[in-house]
Amino acid sequence: MYGTTLTLRMIWLTAALLVLGGLGGLLAQALHLPMPFMLGSLASAAAAVALFQHGALRDYRFPLKFRTLFIGLIGVMIGTQVRPDMINELGGVAISLAALAVFVVLAHAGNYQIFRRLGGYSKATAYFAGTPGGLMESLVMGERAGADLALLTAQQFLRIIIVITVLPTALSLWVGHPVGSAAGITTGAAAPVPLLGLGLIVLAALAGLGIAGLIRLPAGQITGPLLLSAAITLTGAVDLHLPFWLIAVAQVVVGVSLGLRFTGMSAAMLRRSLGMSLLSVGWMLLLGAGFALALAQVTGLPFLHLLISYAPGGVTEMSVIALGLAMNPALVSLHHVVRILLTVGFMSLAEKGMKLDAE
How many beta carbons lie within 10 A of that of residue 169, not counting itself? Predict the structure, then answer.
């Protein structure tokens, strides 16, 4: 009986948070903010945490399997953007992917100095808080190395939240007008998608998630469905284009789950972590902009596409931004998967080859 009551409470709280997030998204859309459904829902969930984390939201955890399904749907959407003519861009993409290794090393080195010298963090905490990707891996390895797990968790989640909040707004200010969804650009199928089509979309997402789990794909929640839907799309046999409303719902789910990450953070920790994260993200965005500017000249790839590709957010979140800004989400996703692979690889080598003290 207690278990049933607890499950019903979790379902009702999840539903209430999603409704709140959806309303936040609609308000952000009415205000012509960039990425309205993700940023509006994130802000709404963060506000709910601030008000109710010691009350109604105490011990609440957003259902990860539910979030995973919607990340899979975003992966399907990105996969449908893969076109045969993208093969012509492979030369430039290869150069850009190779440059990511240099970016990861420089970004991590700068972050370590920020957290160690300015923040006064221990060596282990500074090292793993400064990784420009590999969120879960950095938490696991950091805890083993003796890092302050609460501080490390705050820094890594704030990195993603700040990037997805600042970047779309900064791009709108930089070009002098709203861009992407804030300018009225929508993604997804224009015509209504029949029930059978929706079923195929969900089936593709589930199959992609299953395949990713079996072969242990990196960032498998999004890459599995992405690769499967890309393969299906390139055959021309099935149209898997998602309706706009489903993309908006997926953004709300991702936004709410991110906003809930503020749970458990004290005001003092949040102030300290936020200041350090702003410095860290600022360094990585400036570095990424420099790489994007140079690579745009060398490869011919669009500067803004490269800027989003080098921004240190999560794979899912940055791919959603690319969708919302009417950019090439497949190109962006590929860069972020490689960035995470490089970061995790470097972390693994460091864990084996050096001793980080917790101090």
Answer: 16
